[in-house]
Each structure stands twice: as C-alpha cells, then as structure tokens.
Write a structure and sequence with these properties.
With 100 residues, the chain is an all-alpha fold. Helices cover 61% and strands 0% of the residues. The chain contains 4 helices and no strands. It is rod-shaped. The N and C termini lie far apart (70 Å). About 6% of the residues have low confidence.
C-alpha cells in the first residue's frame, strides 16, 4: 500500500515536472519569436518615412517613439501599415493613430 502511494506520488511529480519544462520551453520560444531579432536604425527609417511630411520634427518624434516600441517602420512615406502591425495599431490617448 505504501509502495503504491509512493509510486503514484512519484509519477504525479514526474508529470508535473515534464509539464513545467514544456511550459518553460513554450514561453522561451514565444519570447524569441515575438522579440525583434535585429535592431533597426530608427533615425534613418523615420527620416525616410517622414521626408514628405509638412511637420517633419513632429513626424520624426512620433515615428521614433513607435519605432523604439515596435522595432519596425513601414517602408515608404505613407501607407504599407500591414507590414508592421504593432506600428499600425498604436494610438494616442485620444484614440487617434500615433504613428505616421
């Protein structure tokens, strides 16, 4: 009787350890996939993005904030927001799109 309880307890502990290891591996895999693997030059990317803006300083400041948070700036001077979903969905406190 004592052996069967010990056996059941050890099997349950073993299964718990396996579950924890698998969960840790999944979290680590998600963290590496979600984080940007390369750093981009936000200054250059935002200069290119804001080159046609009428208020370049404001555009570059907003773009720089978005780039620092998302590590992504859509190509071109406008549009192409589908390339960088984080950049495209960031909003101000007033609910307007933050990123140019």
């Amino acid at each position: 009787m004592a052996i069967s309880k010990a056996l059941i307890a050890s099997v349950l502990i073993f299964l718990l350890v396996i579950h924890l290891v698998e969960a840790d591996q999944m979290v680590n895999a998600d963290a590496t996939e979600g984080s940007p693997s390369k750093k981009i030059d936000c200054g250059a990317a935002c200069s290119a993005r804001c080159q046609l803006a009428s208020r370049q300083k404001m555009c570059k400041r907003a773009c720089g904030t978005c780039c620092a948070r998302c590590s992504c700036v859509p190509p071109g001077t406008s549009g192409n927001r589908d390339v960088c979903p984080c950049y495209a969905t960031m909003t101000t406190h007033g609910g307007r799109l933050k990123c140019p």
